[in-house]
Design a protein that fits this description.
heterodimer, A: MetI-like fold, flat, B: 2 domains, eight-stranded mixed beta sheet, 12 strands, globular
Chain lengths: 301, 431
């Protein structure tokens, strides 16, 4: 914020005439600017082409989906595949299940991993490093191996086909990365802040909740988003551990549109686009936290 | 943050991971064979059971199968709990369910999967139920495993060649060639049509290159002799050499699997491709040519010498019953579903999948359907099972062979070397 008291208030045309602030890119030489834009377009195209292809397929009539040579822009456009979604109430059930499971996974992962990460970051005790590695080592197992074991464990506790089974299994996989991500974040918070709070008489829980957590919001959001996306995208655990009533979107979409001899690609693309919207909106809203949260702790002086 | 990890630390790290893995593996349940309940055990006659079926997911099949379930529910006062998974994940999910004793009742099965599921030792022998069901011998064979009738056939067909009559006619081919030599000449004629038409959209991607097994059989390779793998013999090498020749002459195209072949065929850009009878609906639905259904013509696979039996891989679905609770009820259900005249008529009328009983095949609906009739007479009649299906590792075996054939196609291996390697690798998987 650089506003000073003696800056005159501009009105109307004067305000419009004021030159806009130049971005760092504008100040570069033309060749550098061109290179930067080419890079943005190439990488942007690389990232967005699949999304565009989904949209184009969703808008293409059935008989023309496999037209050869494939057309980048559909010659005929139909909205029937989007309209057909309205008649499929099961998709909404899948969406609700996904939101519940991913949301609870995100919250649970953040809560548990925040306490673990705080302990790893701010305390020194025997076995700390071994515990940290043990947490990380759970990332090294092939998920298929854990699936069989988790299936037996959840079966023994009668948890199959419940939200609990999905949340617990997703949290198992999100915790290691969340813990390490948050540990890196907490490492950047000066110990002097904690000392000061302690001198002021704050209890350990008070320090965590009133000092550490408010300073760590970007990290917590980033970890939460990571856990949410992990839960949202999972296919094999959701398919295996959840029955038809608790099934989430990825297996739900596969169940609905993938057949033995045929895949309803346009309908599948339309459904995938529509159900992606909530996550896209959440990302746009929270992306400033995401970038800050993930990179925090990456560079330390 | 830069952390240096010592060798000791890394060993501790790996040790912890290994310990965890061993602990988790120890928690996994071991499969055990299920003892059959006595026929008069009330548990075996429970009226509530599950029916697992991937068709219950599919847009076209779901209302048909659900309708049949509703019929039996009303008729016999049963409660059938439907269970469904996508086709590509079905076997894994069903294996978990059956292995963990979570599935009580019956399940639809692709005939290729029978060996893998039978290995769990949980399936009931349905020999008695099959005896007077009126099934054809080919259909019954599709549900047999090591001398036991573990599945009742629901639909039986084969994977064979399907042609586009119009394209063949445009190339001047009025009668489909009987021998491989004539077939190759016909493919050259079809290539002459130009316009990017692929004469034969044969599988060239690993996922479906297993189709070549029946070309190997055509050339005289038995694939398996007892427990001895015969891939690597002269006939298999000859078959792969011929396939490579078609590839080099662009009579078959690179990077084609079943879905690509259907797409090319549906667009009128392939004259011949391999498919099961179930693929017809998909090809027609996705084709811009509304008259394509009338142009489809299933043909017998060409043979090496005139008079040989054409080779085709058996294809079909069977119903298996899991031994234990409600097994008697599920057996009666499986028999009704697969052999009741009204049920099989309904199944054929709505899904065009051929029935498995003599009576069903003789019905007017089937007899008057030219595609099904031709498919049955020209392809299914001489079809046989893939001999590798009896091994639970059959999918690995097919992949090993497919990878070696692909190595030949892309020129990184000779047919002789590739087939020798394939034979050795498959032999190692035979137990």
């Amino acid at each position: 914020m650089t506003t000073t008291l003696d800056t005159p208030v501009l009105a109307g045309e004067e305000r419009e005439a004021r030159p806009r602030r130049r971005s760092p890119l504008d100040r570069e030489r033309p060749a550098v600017r061109v290179a930067a834009w080419v890079t943005i377009i190439v990488f942007g195209g690389f990232a967005l082409l699949p999304v565009y292809w989904m949209l184009a397929t969703a808008l293409t009539p059935d008989g023309k989906v496999f037209a050869y040579p494939p057309a980048l822009f559909p010659a005929d456009v139909t909205f029937e595949h989007f309209a057909s979604l309205a008649g499929n109430s099961q998709l909404f059930d899948y969406l609700v299940n996904s939101a519940i499971v991913s949301g609870v996974t995100a919250v649970l992962s953040v809560i548990v991993s925040a306490y673990m990460a705080y302990s790893f970051s701010k305390y020194r005790y025997r076995g700390r490093r071994s515990l940290m590695y043990l947490v990380l080592s759970s990332q090294m197992f092939p998920q298929a191996l854990l699936l069989v074991t988790l299936y037996a464990v959840f079966d023994a506790y009668d948890l199959l086909n419940t939200y609990t089974a999905l949340v617990l299994s997703f949290t198992t996989f999100t915790l290691p990365l969340c813990v390490w991500m948050l540990k890196g974040f907490f490492d950047t918070i000066p110990d002097s802040l904690i000392e000061a709070a302690r001198i002021d008489g704050a209890s350990q829980l008070r320090i965590i909740h009133s000092v550490i957590v408010p300073l760590s919001v970007p990290g917590l959001v980033a970890a939460g988003l990571f856990a949410f996306v992990r839960g949202w995208n999972d296919f094999i655990f959701a398919l295996t551990l959840a029955g038809p009533d608790k099934q989430t979107l990825p297996p739900g979409l596969a169940n609905t549109y993938l057949g033995e001899a045929q895949t309803a690609w346009p309908e599948l693309m339309a459904a995938s686009l529509v159900v992606s919207l909530p996550v896209v909106i959440a990302f746009i809203a929270l992306q400033r936290f995401l970038v800050g949260g993930i990179t925090a702790g990456a560079v330390k002086g | 943050m830069t952390t240096a990890y010592s060798r000791r630390r890394m060993l501790q790290f790996l040790g912890a991971a290994g310990l965890g893995a061993a602990g988790l593996a120890a928690c996994a349940p071991a499969p055990k064979e299920t003892e059959p309940l006595a026929a008069d055990d009330p548990k075996a006659n429970e009226k509530t059971f599950s029916f697992a079926s991937w068709t219950l997911n599919e847009e076209a099949g779901k209302p048909v199968v659900q309708g049949l379930l509703d019929t039996i529910t009303t008729k016999d006062g049963l409660t059938v709990n439907p269970v469904s998974y996508p086709y590509n994940e079905y076997l894994n999910q069903l294996t978990l369910q059956v292995r963990g004793d979570k599935l009580v009742g019956a399940a639809q099965l692709d005939i290729a999967w029978l060996g893998a599921l039978a290995a769990l030792g949980k399936l009931r022998d349905l020999g008695d139920a099959a005896k007077d069901g009126g099934y054809t011998s080919t259909a019954l064979e599709s549900g047999q495993y090591e001398g036991k009738q573990l599945g009742l056939p629901w639909t039986t067909g084969a994977i064979g060649l399907v042609t586009n009559k119009e394209l063949l006619s445009r190339a001047g081919i009025t009668e489909f060639p009987e021998t491989i030599e004539d077939f190759e000449a016909a493919l050259v004629e079809l290539k002459g049509l130009g316009g990017g038409v692929v004469p034969y959209a044969a599988s060239t991607k690993v996922a479906q290159l297993k189709d070549i097994l029946f070309w190997m059989k055509t050339f005289g390779c038995t694939l398996l002799d007892g427990d001895r793998v015969t891939i690597g013999d002269d006939a298999s090498v000859e078959a792969v050499t011929w396939y490579k020749k078609l590839y080099d002459q662009k009579l078959i195209a690179p990077d084609v699997d079943r879905f690509d072949a259907r797409a090319l065929f549906g667009q009128g850009r392939a004259a011949i491709y391999d498919d099961a009878i179930v693929g017809k609906g998909a090809v027609i639905k996705d084709s811009p040519d509304k008259q394509l259904a009338d142009k489809l013509d299933p043909v017998a696979r060409p043979v090496l010498k005139s008079g040989d039996d054409p080779q085709a891989q058996l294809w079909g679905h069977v119903i298996v019953v899991v031994e234990g609770e409600a097994a008697n009820t599920a057996t009666s259900f499986a028999r009704w579903l697969t052999s009741d005249q009204a049920a099989t008529d309904e199944f054929f009328a709505k899904l065009a999948l051929p029935p498995t009983t003599e009576k069903g095949l003789a019905s007017d609906a089937v007899a008057n359907d030219p595609f099904t009739k031709a498919f049955s007479e020209r392809i299914t009649k001489t079809a046989s099972q893939n001999p590798f299906w009896r091994f639970p590792e059959y999918a690995q075996m097919e992949t090993v062979i497919a990878e070696q054939v692909q190595a030949v196609l892309i020129g990184s291996s000779s047919p002789a070397d590739a087939m020798t390697t394939a034979g050795e690798q498959v032999q190692a998987l035979v137990k």
